[in-house]
Structure formats: C-alpha cells, structure tokens
Amino acid sequence: MIEKKIVGEKAVEFIKDGMTVGLGTGSTVYYTIMKLGQLMKEGLSIKGVPTSIQTEQLANECGIPLVTFKEINHIDVTIDGADEVDPQLSLIKGGGGALLREKIIARAAKSFIVVADPAKMVDYLGAFPLPIEVVPFGVEMTNKQIRLLGAETKIRSANNGPYKSDNGNYIIDAKFPNILDPVTLEQKLNMIPGVVENGLFNQMADAVITLNADKQIVVKNRS
Ligand SMILES: O=C[C@H](O)[C@H](O)[C@H](O)COP(=O)(O)O
C-alpha cells in the first residue's frame, strides 16, 4: 500500500547519525527499516533495538547492527506502526502480536514516533480488537476476567493451536465497544492476574506521521 510506504519512509527524518533506534514491527515500519538500510549503505551509522524476531531478521538483512539493553542506557528514537490512533494519539497496537516488546522499547525511548496510514486514524479506539498478551497458564480464567470488563474475546489461534508471541505467551483479542477511557482500561486490564501487557499505548506517542484527506504528509504532535 503506497500510503504505508510514504509515511514509513518519512520517519527516517527523525533519525540522526549515531542514534540508537527502536525498530518497530509490521508492514508500515517495514518501509522505515528498509529506508534506514539504504541510508546505511550511503554512510549513516545507527544501532537498532528490534521489537520482534521478525524485525530482528529484517534488520539483519538490511545491515543494521543490533544492540540489547545490556549494552545501552536508553534509546534515542523508537519508530513503530499502530492499528488505531485516536485524536489524543492514544494507540491500539499488537495486531502482529509484538505489543509487549514494543511497549518496553517505546517506553525506553526519548522520543516515540508512530507511522500510520490514514485508515488507522479513528475518533475512538475500539473497532480494532484490543490485543492482550497473557500467560498460557489459566488462560480460560484470564479470558473470563477480561470479558467481565465488557469485551467479546477470542484467544488468537495459529495453524497448530494457540498463537504464541515471541515471549511464549498467548494473545487474547478483546473487542470492546468504543473505548472512551483508554487510560483506565489499560490499568484495569493490567491488574488482572495472568495479563502480561495490553495493546493500549496511552500518552506515549510523541508524534504520529500520517496523510491528510489531500494525501499530504502530516505530523501530528501530542499536545
Ligand atoms: O504487533 C504489531 C504491531 O503493533 C504493529 O505495529 C501494528 O500491528 C501495525 O502494523 P501494520 O503497520 O502492519 O499495520
């Protein structure tokens, strides 16, 4: 999709020589990573911290050297995609199952930039089922507790049974009605025993790169 390429490539403007960069996961930030690989061939020098095994592989293919948290104190900029973005720049993430590492790496960054094609921009979060990472033990009970908060839920499946995240956990996709108070919902979900993390990213994105109705690139900053 051309919109993903446009916003994904625009994000490289936030990255300067010598930076440590959090590398998100998904089909939009794919274009950011590919462009960074190209710029590295032209002399840019950065280090990356990948948010998933998939991104680790892509970064390796692109020649981006990777570091772990043992080797760094902070990340300068993290670039990542989103499944939904509301007007306050709260996000739903985790459609690709990478939300836990993504949230750790977004939080560790001085600046968190989101790349989102216009279809991701919504008035209220919630049309996209919220991904919630849970430990396999007691998943049926954890699922019931999530339903008590008003969601219809599905344990995500893969070819041979439940989908497993890079961390060996399951993902429950929870369809809530319009999420009017994402801050409270994020907290309530994380208080349920068995929930490791959920895909609500509130007050985290510093800026979102998207396209307006005229297909022009816009950078929305969090106020
Ligand atoms: O787990 C996956 C991530 O949160 C992605 O960043 C998100 O699903 C958006 O992916 P895409 O850019 O492919 O729509």
Please provide a written account of the structure.
The chain is of the alpha/beta class and about 220 residues long. The chain folds into 2 domains: about 1-120 and about 200-215, Rossmann fold (3-Layer(aba) Sandwich); about 130-200, ACT domain (Alpha-Beta Plaits). The protein has helices at about 1-10, 30-40, 55-60, 100-105, 140-145, 180-190; strands spanning about 20-25, 45-50, 75-80, 85, 90, 110-115, 130-135, 150-155, 155-160, 160, 170-175, 195-200, 200, 205-210, 215-220. Strands 2-1-3-6-14-15 form a 6-stranded mixed sheet, sandwiched between helices. A 4-stranded antiparallel sheet has the order 8-11-7-12, covered by helices on one side. β9 (about 155-160) and β10 form a beta hairpin. α1 (about 1-10) crosses α2 and α2 (about 30-40) packs parallel to α3 (about 55-60). The longest helix is centred in the first third of the chain and has 13 residues, at about 30-40. The chain is globular, with a radius of gyration of 17 Å. The mean pLDDT is about 95.
Summarize the SSE layout with pairings.
Elements: H1 2-10, E1 20-23, H2 29-41, E2 47-50, H3 53-62, E3 75-80, E4 84-85, E5 91-92, H4 99-107, E6 109-115, E7 130-134, H5 139-147, E8 152-155, E9 157-158, E10 161-162, E11 170-175, H6 182-190, E12 195-198, E13 200-201, E14 207-211, E15 217-221
Parallel strand pairs: 1-2, 1-3, 3-6, 6-14
Antiparallel strand pairs: 4-5, 5-13, 7-11, 7-12, 8-11, 9-10, 14-15
Helix pairs in contact: 1-2, 2-3
Residues 24-28, 80-83, 93-99, 102 line the site of ribose-5-phosphate (R5P).
GO molecular function, one term: ribose-5-phosphate isomerase activity
Family: Belongs to the ribose 5-phosphate isomerase family.
Catalytic activity: aldehydo-D-ribose 5-phosphate = D-ribulose 5-phosphate
